[in-house]
Amino acid sequence: MKAIQATIAEATLFESGRPMIVVPYIQKTRLKLDRVMVCWDGSRTAVRAIADAIPLLEKTKDIEVVKIVTSERHKEEEFDGADMGLHLARHGFKVQVTRIQQDSVDAANALLSHCADSGADFMIMGGYGHSRLREFVLGGVTRSILSSMTVPTLMSH
User: Fold this and answer.
1) Residue range 97-150, pLDDT digits in tens
2) Whole-number Å distance between alpha carbons of 125 and 142
3) pTM of the model
4) Fewest 10 Å CB contacts: which of 28, 34, 65, 83?
5) Residue 107 domain-assigned?
6) Where in the sequence is the domain holding 95, given as residue range(s)?
């Protein structure tokens, strides 16, 4: 995504108060919702994105809740993803929960890699869980996904 497009997307995400679907410029096919990957970190923005996506999720065949963990010693992180998986299953969805070990790559690349490996058609995630200033200075998952996404992505803030 070009700089001006990223700026517009960021402003829309922050100022609209609504979810937005960002489509990568390489997208040539119609929107598919067969396999949806939900990025889960337990944040308010992730909860908002999932709630905003419920009408779209009703059209899916498979939902995968993906939780990135940074080390095995954080076993309690495992329950966050399981709880969200259970929540979605109670809505009648077929859900799988996957933990991704984040090793040498950053979180955004780990998510994009898993998205490609799993054959996901669509991604759902919270946008800017940290302040824009922190993400601007240090980088962040939202900014990285916006710059190199490969599938349409619903984001909410």
Assistant:
1) 998 887 777 888 899 999 999 999 999 999 875 555 544 543 478 778 888 888
2) 9
3) 0.83
4) 28
5) yes
6) 3-21+31-156
Pairing of strands 35-40, 153-156: unpaired
Q: Which pLDDT score, from 0 to 100, does residue 76 have?
A: 53
Q: Is the dihedral of CA 118, 122, 127, 132 positive or negative?
A: positive
For residue 44, the domain's CATH number is 3.40.50.620
94, 85 in Cβ contact below 8 A?
no
Please write the tens of the pLDDT for every residue from 84-105. Answer: 888 899 999 999 999 888 777 7
Tally of structural domains, the chain: 1
116 burial via Cβ count (<10 Å: 0-12, 13-18, 19+): exposed
For residue 137, the model assigns a pLDDT of 41
Q: How many CB atoms lie within 10 A of CB 97?
A: 22
Please report, to the nearest 10 degrees, the dihedral formed by the alpha carbons of residues 153, 22, 127, 59 taken in order.
-40
Output phi, psi for 17, to 5 deg. Answer: 70, 15
**Is 26 part of any domain?**
no
